[in-house]
Amino acid sequence: MDYKCAVIICILLSAILVQGQQSQGERCSCKKFSKKLDVKKIVTFEIFPPSSKCEREEYIATVKRSKGKKKAGSKTERKCISPDMKLVKDIIGGKINRKIQVIKHPSQKE
């Protein structure tokens, strides 16, 4: 009887631990942040709210590539932007008059 209870408790604890772990693809998108960004090259500016996958708000800009950095078939690249940059606050606040598409992703309720 005691042996069966111990096995059941171990199985339940294992299930709880496995469920609490994040899988590889569910982490924050941004690990490094760009220190500089040319406003003229921004195509879209995306805002990702905190979620169960990432506890911080993330800002990702899609920018036109520099002429020397072109990759085959890709004219744009995505860059993570530090939330502390003045540029982020200006784009969100509407102070920049360029036509930048700002995409606010809804928070994910899980």
Q: Do you know the CATH topology?
A: OB fold (Dihydrolipoamide Acetyltransferase, E2P)
* The first-level CATH class name: Mainly Beta
Spatial strand sequence of the major β-sheet:
3-2-1-4
Strand coverage percent: 15-25%
Q: Give the beta-strand count.
A: 4
Tertiary shape: elongated
Largest sheet: 4 strands, mixed
Q: Which consecutive residue ranges, at least 5 long each, have pLDDT under 50?
A: none
Number of continuous helical runs: 2
How many distinct folded domains?
1
Task: Report the end-to-end length measured between terminal Cα atoms.
Answer: 38 Å
CATH architecture: Beta Barrel
Tell me about this structure.
The protein is of the alpha+beta class and 110 residues long. It has a single domain (26-104), classed as Beta Barrel (OB fold (Dihydrolipoamide Acetyltransferase, E2P)). The chain is 25% helix and 22% strand. It is built from 2 helices and 4 strands. The chain has helices at residues 2-20, 86-93, and strands spanning 42-48, 58-64, 76-81, 101-104. Residues 25-95 form the Chemokine interleukin-8-like domain. Residues 1-20 form the signal peptide. Keywords: Cytokine, Signal. This is C-X-C motif chemokine 10-3.
